[in-house]
């Protein structure tokens, strides 16, 4: 699996289109990050350091076993293709995967890849609007947990640092 | 004790939209001060939103959530006049809870 | 090698400033940029809902209504030009001449006057940390400006002293200075000038001037702070490598008088949100 991931990231660097990337479904066992978050755990005191200390998507694969995540068109990422400032990248994520009960946001090229993980209890719509930091142009992955399985979608977001205007 | 949050909750039929702004530096721990010393990480780690006894959203965050975080989501079954409570806890143990009425 | 987060980000921002000023002179938008421009517009649109400036506004309101200083007074009797305690529209009419101080003042300098006169604070206390996020003055200016949302900018500089400030402001706007031989007008007096992806307002065009002035003060995501118009101008001056302008100085207020006059009629939307 780590080899596959290595290939995956290598190919990413070759400016692969998003669709091609998304086909690399089996590789994205790495997106088991949310698997580190205890299912159904809604206790505020629990923060999972291991999940947030993962430096590379590859490390997730090494660290985690389990089923690979599947690419899904039922996950929508609404974000600009280009962000003027990586310190604030607005994203709205929604999942039409039935039974969605967790949504995580990961930024491939951040120092720590996992940005945020949300537990979605029954009755809450599987749609989150928030803002994350991106260190540089990168793929943003959204990982959804539904019925104990994992699904993902990806979008590349370019970060321009912009001028000093405003 | 953190600074107050700005909360809005609005009912449209039986769907309540909650919008939250939190005042927090969300320091990554990756930056250095002018003396070249690392600025310690300081960020919100957990967020819990409740409607009465019901938890309608819970989150775990790392320092890659933007400074002064914004979060919005929707849940079903809320009623006008009901109370939404939002709590966050950061990595230094600081915490803040604010409440708002559903309009 | 993975650059660390802000270690990677910050120096490049600083470096971008130097190059961008010069690059901007030659840059105009082309068809190739249309997608980028659309996406940047989307980025800005998505940021509008949930502007962290609202947190400063909340804090500003608390500072306005809470008794503070040696006189344990609130700012609720502060006269911003429309009478003691009158907030709606006050920001849109500033800067203006104030009889009691014999000065042309903007929102910021007037708030400092109120804090010193009403509350007994020193100027130093009133402006403490003005260059840092979450300063009292930043919160107060944000609160006051928010109360002008929907009001048209109306600071025509008719009083002789205001007219004098407008003339000085225009002079400062056009005067080339500093090692780069730059003026504000170098970048801000023609249409479709940009610094990288940022469209620059043309302050000689009323519509363009309005589109800028109605959004200040604004939350700068790059600073996690609300910048007031004074802070914006002082930093523009620094970016031109001109000698530092003093905070609350007549020179900065003169520029504001000129810009507000150019933006007359623009309907206030502040606080804005910018990169």
Helix/strand order of chain B: EEEEEEE
Taking Cα atoms only, what radius of gyration of chain C do you get, to the nearest Å?
Answer: 19 Å
Separation of the first and last Cα atoms of chain B: 27 Å
Taking all Cα atoms into account, the compactness measure Rg of chain B is 15 Å
Structure write-up:
The complex is a heterotrimer of chains A (166), B (103) and C (275). Chain A has 166 residues and is of the alpha+beta class. Chain A has a single domain (2-159), classed as SoxY domain (Immunoglobulin-like, Sandwich). Chain A has four helices and nine strands; from the N terminus they run H-H-H-H-E-E-E-E-E-E-E-E-E. Chain A has helices spanning 2-13, 18-22, 49-52, 57-63; strands at 70-71, 75-78, 82-83, 89-95, 100-107, 114-119, 127-132, 138-146, 149-159. In chain A, the strands form two sheets. In chain A, strands 1, 3, 5, 6, 8 and 9 form a six-stranded mixed sheet that branches. A three-stranded antiparallel sheet of chain A has the order 2-4-7, with no helix packed on it. In chain A, strand 8 (138-146) and strand 9 (149-159) form a beta hairpin. The longest helix of chain A has 12 residues, at 2-13. Chain A is globular. The N and C termini of chain A lie far apart (45 Å). Mean pLDDT of chain A is 73; it is low at 1-45 and 162-166. With 103 residues, chain B is an all-beta fold. Chain B has a single domain, classed as Immunoglobulin-like, CATH 2.60.40. Helix content of chain B is 0%, strand content 50%. Chain B contains no helices and seven strands. In chain B, the strands form two sheets. Chain B has a four-stranded antiparallel sheet with strand order 4-3-6-7, with no helix packed on it. Chain B is elongated, with a radius of gyration of 15 Å. Chain B starts with 5 loop residues before the first strand and ends with a strand. The relative contact order of chain B is 0.32. Chain C has 275 residues and is mostly helical. In chain C, 47% of the residues lie in helices and 7% in strands. Chain C has eleven helices and seven strands. Chain C has helices at 5-26, 34-48, 53-65, 107-117, 123-126, 136-146, 160-174, 184-188, 206-213, 229-239, 250-262; strands at 96-98, 103-105, 194-195, 198-199, 218-220, 225-227, 272-274. A three-stranded mixed sheet of chain C has the order 6-5-7. Chain C has a two-stranded antiparallel ribbon with strand order 1-2. The interface between A and B is medium-sized, with 36 and 34 residues.
């Amino acid at each position: 699996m780590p080899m596959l991931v290595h290939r995956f990231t290598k190919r990413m660097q070759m400016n692969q289109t998003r669709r091609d990337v998304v086909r690399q479904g089996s590789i994205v066992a790495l997106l088991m990050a949310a698997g580190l978050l205890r299912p159904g755990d809604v206790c505020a005191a629990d923060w999972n350091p291991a999940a947030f200390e993962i430096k590379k998507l590859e490390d997730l694969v090494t660290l985690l076993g389990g089923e690979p995540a599947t690419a899904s068109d039922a996950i929508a990422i609404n974000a600009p293709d280009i962000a003027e400032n990586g310190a604030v990248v607005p994203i709205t994520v929604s999942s039409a995967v039935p039974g969605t009960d967790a949504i995580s946001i990961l930024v491939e090229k951040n120092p720590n890849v996992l940005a945020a993980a949300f537990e979605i209890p029954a009755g809450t719509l599987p749609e989150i609007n928030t803002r994350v930091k991106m260190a540089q142009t990168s793929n943003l992955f959204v990982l959804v947990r539904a019925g104990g399985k994992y699904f993902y979608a990806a979008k590349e977001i370019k970060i321009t640092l912009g001028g000093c205007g405003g | 004790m953190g600074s107050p949050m700005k909360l809005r909750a609005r009912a449209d039929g039986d769907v309540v939209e909650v919008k939250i702004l939190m005042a927090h530096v969300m320091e990554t721990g990756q930056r250095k001060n002018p003396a070249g010393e690392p600025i310690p990480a300081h960020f919100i780690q957990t967020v819990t939103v409740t409607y009465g006894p019901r938890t309608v959203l819970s989150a775990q965050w790392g320092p890659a959530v933007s400074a002064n975080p914004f979060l919005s989501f929707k849940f079903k079954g809320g009623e006008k006049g009901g109370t939404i409570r939002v709590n966050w806890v950061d990595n230094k143990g600081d915490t803040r809870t604010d409440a708002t009425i559903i309009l | 090698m993975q650059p660390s987060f802000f270690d990677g980000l910050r120096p490049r921002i600083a470096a971008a400033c130097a190059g961008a000023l010069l690059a901007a002179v030659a840059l105009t938008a082309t068809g190739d940029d249309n997608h980028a421009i659309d996406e940047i517009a989307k980025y800005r649109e998505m940021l509008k809902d949930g502007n962290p400036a609202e947190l400063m506004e909340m804090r500003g309101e608390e500072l306005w209504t809470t008794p503070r200083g040696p006189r344990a007074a609130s700012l609720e009797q502060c006269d911003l030009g429309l009478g003691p305690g009158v907030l709606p529209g006050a920001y849109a009419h500033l800067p203006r001449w104030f009889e009691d101080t014999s000065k042309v003042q903007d929102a910021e300098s007037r708030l400092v006057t109120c804090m010193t006169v009403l509350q007994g604070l020193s100027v130093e206390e009133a402006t403490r940390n003005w260059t840092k996020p979450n300063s009292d003055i930043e919160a107060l200016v944000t609160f006051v400006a928010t109360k002008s949302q929907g009001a048209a900018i109306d600071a025509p500089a008719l009083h002789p002293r205001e007219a004098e400030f407008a003339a000085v402001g225009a002079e400062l706007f056009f005067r080339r200075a500093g090692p780069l031989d730059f003026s504000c007008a170098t970048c801000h007096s023609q249409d479709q000038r940009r610094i990288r992806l940022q469209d620059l307002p043309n302050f000689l065009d009323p519509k363009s001037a309005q589109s800028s002035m109605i959004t200040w003060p604004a939350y700068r995501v790059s600073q996690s702070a609300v910048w007031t118009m004074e802070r914006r101008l002082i930093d523009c001056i620094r970016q031109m490598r001109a000698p530092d302008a003093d905070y609350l100085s007549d020179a900065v207020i003169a520029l504001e008088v000129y810009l507000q006059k150019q933006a007359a009629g623009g309907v206030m939307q502040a606080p804005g949100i910018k990169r």
